[in-house]
Write a structure and sequence with these properties.
disordered N terminus, alpha/beta, single chain, four-stranded parallel β-sheet, Rossmann fold, globular, binds 4-nitrophenyl phosphate
Amino acid sequence: MFSHKKVFSLPRFEYFCAMKILMVCLGNICRSPLADALLRKKIANKDLQIVVDSAGTSGYHVGNQPDERTQENARKHGLDLSDLKARQFTHKDFSEFDWIYVMDRTNYFNVLELAETDEDRNKVKLILKELPNEPLNEVPDPYYSGEQGFERVYNLLDAATDAIAEKLLENAL
Ligand code: 4NP
């Protein structure tokens, strides 16, 4: 006799995540891993279901730890970046993430080149736009700078991630 295979509806214990945020720069070894770690630290223990990650538009440093100078600067501020590994931004990130924060205009255009819909494009924001009183629009690339350049990047990203964390806590992002 023909019998239908019984299909059980099993309970799904999927991890509920209210928001996913991706930080993007060129190499994913200086600015975006720092922005990623700063935001994660600021929302830790806040009872928020938020995933934060980072990626680079280039594949130059895929698999590498953050740049030693970024790690040194972050350590000075009490942040350990040693567990992070660079990866390249892909089109799939548009469906994975709700917001994609880019560090500068070059990152912005590189990311938009992979966008297919207005929904994709509307997810992409320059991170310093979160600081309305900041005259700079871009987080400067510190790769060819000295220690001061890395400290400047730290201060900009510390302020920008404060603003983002505040919005997340107010459910306003
Ligand atoms: P990031 O910095 O985009 O902030 O990670 C850079 C890292 C590497 C290079 C440029 C910028 N590079 O030319 O290899």
